[in-house]
Amino acid sequence: MPDQTSSDVIIRPAGPDQGDIAAQLMYSTHPVLHDDLYSGDKADVVACCKAIWESKEALESHSIAYGAYAGDALIGFEICGTMDMVREREHVDVGLVKGILSATAFEHYDLCFRDRWSYAFPRFPEETYYVGCLAVLPEWHGKGVGRLLLQDAFDRAKTRKCKDVQLDLYANNPALHFYQAMGMEKLSETTVMALQDTDTPTHYRMIKRFN
């Protein structure tokens, strides 16, 4: 990779292309979750995440994502939304996954999500702007790209008159210090006992309040 910095990066609405990169970024945000839902099958992870990204209606669609681009290359993204958007879109993701996985694999996916993972990500208030995914390719870490993406989410939340921005992350995620430096604080901790066999760490709900 050339010696580039965040000054070479543009944040703009994402397009449906570069699905393989988008799938890599999605996986990096919650690897334990994806490994559990897809039984460790990386091909299924990529196929499903790519289909979700390319769809216009899915919850983790490019249509509600803002990408960090170095030239035409997608190097990071943020996928954000409100509770209304979650209610409108979450069923689409499940339908796409069902159409890709085998019947047995989907049964496992559906059971894991309903009985385990749905508890790891509590619902959020109507007036909250929620960052569902924020990720940057490893070779761009430490170059200020994450800061650009998160600040973009803050600015958009203010424009929408939201009261705060919230997100979830693992307690052992080194990015915790980054979020705190950006003015976010811990709101709550969630430990799902049914996930103990997956070695899933406690989740922190982080919040940035606007006065």
Summary, kept brief:
39% of the residues lie in helices and 23% in strands. It contains seven helices and seven strands, in the order E-H-H-H-E-E-H-H-E-H-E-H-E-E.
Description:
39% of the residues lie in helices and 23% in strands. It has 211 residues and is α+β, with helices and mostly antiparallel strands. The chain has one domain (6-209): 3-Layer(aba) Sandwich (Aminopeptidase). The protein has a 7-stranded mixed sheet with strand order 1-2-3-4-5-7-6, with helices on both faces. A hairpin with a 2-residue loop joins strand 2 and strand 3. Helix 1 packs across helix 3 and helix 3 (42-54) crosses helix 4.
What percent of residues adopt helix (DSSP H or I)? Answer: 25-40%
Instruction: Give Rg in angstroms.
Output: 17 Å
Number of H/I helices: 7
End-to-end distance: 40 Å
What fold name goes in the CATH topology slot?
Aminopeptidase
Spans of at least 5 consecutive residues whose pLDDT stays below 50 are none
Q: What is the total number of structural domains?
A: 1
Topology record:
Blueprint: E1 9-13, H1 19-29, H2 31-37, H3 42-54, E2 65-70, E3 73-81, H4 83-100, H5 103-115, E4 128-136, H6 145-159, E5 164-170, H7 176-181, E6 185-190, E7 203-209
Parallel strand pairs: 4-5
Antiparallel strand pairs: 1-2, 2-3, 3-4, 5-7, 6-7
Helix pairs in contact: 1-3, 3-4
Essential attributes:
7 strands; 211 residues; globular; 39% helix; alpha+beta; seven-stranded mixed sheet; single chain; Aminopeptidase
